[in-house]
Amino acid sequence: MPLETQARDALAAVDKALAEKPHKEGHTFSAAARSLCLVRDSLSARQKDDAMRRRWLGHINAVISVVLAGHFPLGSVPWDEIAKARDWLADFAAEVGARPSPKG
């Protein structure tokens, strides 16, 4: 699956979590984490090791960490942090040329 598609799918999964705001441990967070891990794995598998790839990996790993904090919160779900992480993911998706899925 192309990185652009993975990025779009991950962004959609995080957007769904933000829209549904599950309390914890829901399928929505699991789907978001799986999608983000696919993006991370694709970036890790790339042969070219450059500053942009390392920066992207750092951002994706941070987004994964925040989504997991929502999935398994120690207190209340950190929705503000998840929204900020979503913005990082949106920036990444735009950089790799991902376009939003059509509504339908």
What does this structure look like?
The protein has one domain (3-95). Helices cover 72% and strands 0% of the residues. It is built from 4 helices and no strands. The radius of gyration is 13 Å and the shape is globular. The two termini are 22 Å apart.
With helices defined by DSSP (H or I, 4 residues minimum), what is the helix count? 4
What is the molecular shape? Answer: globular
Mean pLDDT comes to: 87
Strand/helix succession: HHHH
- Into how many domains do the coordinates divide? 1
Radius of gyration: 13 Å
Distance between the termini: 22 Å
The poorly predicted ranges are: none
Largest sheet: none
Helical content class: over 70%
Strand content: under 5%
Counting DSSP E segments of at least 2 residues, the number of strands comes to 0
The assigned structural class equals mainly alpha
Question: What are the SSEs and their pairings?
Answer:
Elements: H1 3-20, H2 27-45, H3 51-71, H4 79-95
Identify the notable features of this structure and list them briefly.
0% strand; single chain; mainly alpha; 4 helices; 104 residues
Quick structural overview:
The protein is mainly alpha-helical and 104 residues long.
